[in-house]
Amino acid sequence: MTLDMDNVEVFDAGEKGRGLRTTKDLWAGEVVFAEPSFAAVVFDSLSQQVCHSCFRRQANLHRCAQCKFAHYCDRTCQTACWDEHKQECAAIKKYEKAPNENVRLTARVLWRIQKDTGIVSDGQLTSVDQLEDHVADMLAEDFKELKIDMQNFLDYCPKTRHGKEYISHIFGIIKCNGFTLSDQRGLQAVGVGLFPNLCLVNHDCWPNCTVILNHGNQSTLNAAYHSKRRIELRALSKISENEELTVGYVDFLNVSTDRQRALKHQYHFDCTCKSCSEHLKDDLKMAVKETDGNKPSDQLVKEVQEFSLECLAKVEAARTAGDFHEVVKLCRECLDKQEPVFGKTHLYHLRMLSTASEVLSYLQFFSEAAEYAGRLVEGYMKLYHPNNAHLGMATMRAGVTHWHAGLIKVGHEMICKAYAILMVTHGPNHPITKDLESMRMQTEMELRMFKQNEHVYHSMREAALQNKPMAEASSVEDNIKALSHKLL
Q1: Which of 168-172, 176-180, 325-329 is predicted with the least confidence, judged by mean pLDDT?
Q2: Which residues of 464-481 are buried (b: 16+ CB within 10 A; e: fewer)?
Q3: Among candidates 194, 197, 143, which has minimal Cα distance to 168?
Q4: Mean pLDDT, to the nearest integer, of 282-301?
Q5: Is the per-residue pLDDT at 312 higher than 80?
Q6: What is the pLDDT of residue 259?
Q7: Going edge to edge, which strands form the sheet with 209-214?
Q8: In angstroms, rounded to a whole number, what is the distance separating the alpha carbons of residues 459 and 468?
Q9: pLDDT above 60 for 255
Q10: How many CB atoms lie within 10 A of CB 116?
Q11: Quick one: average pLDDT of 462-472?
Q12: Which residues fall within 8 angstroms of residue 432, CB to CB, at 6 or more apart?
């Protein structure tokens, strides 16, 4: 296999070590490079809900008859994955259970190194062995977990040819370089994989690239042409020749000190990017409300912040327990407390708006959900890069929520904005972009009908939502009827 890496080259990035830079000018939305996983596994918690080959979330997956652990969409997926799964299959059968995802991924990496060495493509710019492990920098708690995983690995693969130091090296590489894989719609993390070329791209809190998982074409019946899960590194804006490529290892929606702390713990480096060194947008993320030139007292701000943190913990517990009405109650109470104190971009306020809009939409309280979703996007737009994927996804959800609430004009406008962002971050062929394009076309048609006859549009929509029979109608009304059924 040959990877097209003509757009990039490895260079000495100083204190950051190796890095990647462009060899030509790149434009927003351009794919810098694509790379299949060296090895990847599904999370333990989702092992029966996600295909172990294509990482798509599916109902009624077929279980491997031998190990009874791996699950697949169909025989095509199973055949495509057999070369990767066969040693794992035998090990699980002998071990009589599947170990955790860290052990399974380490085993897959080592089996592949043993079979193909650490370089499996002419376009692979570094071997797996050369990636940083930072084992020596681990905290005591992390090192304790490593020792447990090491013992579990040796029980799982008792005949391994590799020494303990080398195995520990691979565990460390995965901890520092593992990339979270999402499902086919990009909405849920479902696994973790190792992508050697991607590991060479350094971090910046305000990056010029983004990474998405593109599952490729899974429809072919011939396993030889069955696309592997792969990442795409995509430019967020114009990148000039010889400019370093960067991605965000952590979400920008945290203040600089929290981002630095997370980066130090997980990746063992001190972030000195411009956003951190100059604390850019930290003031917005902790903004308080100003009324007639007056700000709330520091004591009141502290009290509401503490209340918000407690409430966020309660919300998470209620959500985990499936008590969504309790989640809504807690969100409303917290938002009422925050309203006179926090600014529109305060992090705790945005987190509560995000949860409230999502759960209210799930409970089909669309009007209230739309209000919160709109406020969330308004805050995000002041904090995130204009082409940030999180902003695009939040705008898409807000557009769909407004659409479901019958606010077709705002809904269509937001869906169009989301589509413009995701065309850059995900590209035209990603499943979620294709879904969004269908929604954009549908809301555009509905908006035209709404402008022709607002009363008829709402009448037809309400009847469709209530699943009532509809009488014969004019061509415009017939179109609304068809579109309303699609909306459902």
Answers
A1: 176-180
A2: beeeeeeeeeeeebebbb
A3: 143
A4: 94
A5: yes
A6: 97
A7: 31-36, 230-235, 209-214
A8: 11
A9: yes
A10: 11
A11: 58
A12: 185, 186, 187, 422, 426
Mean pLDDT of 51-62: 90
Distances (CA, A) of 103 to 44, 53, 106: 11, 18, 5
Q: Whose CA is closest to 113, among 130, 92, 100, 94?
A: 130
pLDDT tens-digit readout, 352-368:
999 999 999 999 999 99
Please report the pLDDT score of residue 473 as a whole number.
Answer: 37
Instruction: Answer yes or no: are the C-beta atoms of 52 and 81 closer than 8 Å.
Output: yes
Q: Which residues contact 87 (CB under 8 A, 6 or more apart)?
A: 107, 111
- 24-46: string of b/e by CB count within 10 Å (b at 16+)? eebebbbebbbbbbbbbbbbeeb
Across the strands, what pairs with 35?
231
Token match 């294709």: residue? Answer: 434
Higher pLDDT, 117 or 235: 235
**How many beta carbons lie within 10 A of that of residue 305, not counting itself?**
18
Structure tokens at 416: 């169009």
Query: Which of 184, 12, 89, 306 shows the shortest CA–CA distance to 298?
Result: 306
pLDDT digit string, tens, across residues 387-432: 999 999 999 999 999 999 999 999 999 999 999 999 999 999 888 9
User: How many C-beta neighbours within 10 Å does residue 353 have?
Assistant: 26
